[in-house]
Amino acid sequence: MVKRKPSKPKERLSRPRYVARRKFCSFCVDKVESIDYKYPEKLRSYISDRGKIAPRRRSGVCAKHQRALAVAIKRARHLALIPYVPAHIHEMGSVDTGD
Questions:
Q1: Closest of 20, 76, 75, 66 to residue 46, by C-alpha
Q2: Within 10 A of 6 (CB to CB), how many other CB atoms are there?
């Protein structure tokens, strides 16, 4: 039986596809003192279309401000300034019951 040398993985000779830009916390850049639940229009940009709070890796917010942002979003939801779920889920239409 002939023994073969294990083949080495091919090295990439091309450049990377893109250079990842560093995300900066928008709250740190603007020197925001506190994140307030009373401004839902600012909080909506950190909520997905499904009504979930955006993770840090997507929003680019630092850990300190992400915690404050989550608390502010939850308070705004509790006071009905922001919906818990998107509106299109509730628009079910008429269901035929077969009566």
A1: 66
A2: 4
Q: Cα(61)–Cα(49) distance, rounded to whole angstroms? A: 18
- The three-state secondary structure class of 53 is strand
User: Using an 8 Å Cβ cutoff, are 65 and 35 in contact?
Assistant: yes
Q: What is the spatial distance between Cα 23 and Cα 98, in angstroms, rounded to a whole number? A: 55
The pTM of the whole model exceeds 0.85: no
CA distance 75 to 37: 6
Q: What are the C-alpha distances in Å from 7 to residues 1, 40, 88?
A: 18, 57, 54
- pLDDT by residue (tens digit) across 29-65? 999 999 999 999 999 999 998 889 999 999 999 999 9
Q: Please list, in sequence order, all residues whose beta carbon lies within 8 angstroms of the beta carbon of residue 90, skipping any fewer than 6 positions away.
A: none
DSSP 46: G
- The total of other beta-carbon atoms located within 10 Å of residue 20's CB is 6
* Cα–Cα distance list, 86 to 3, 14, 42, 70, 78 (Å): 62, 44, 17, 17, 15
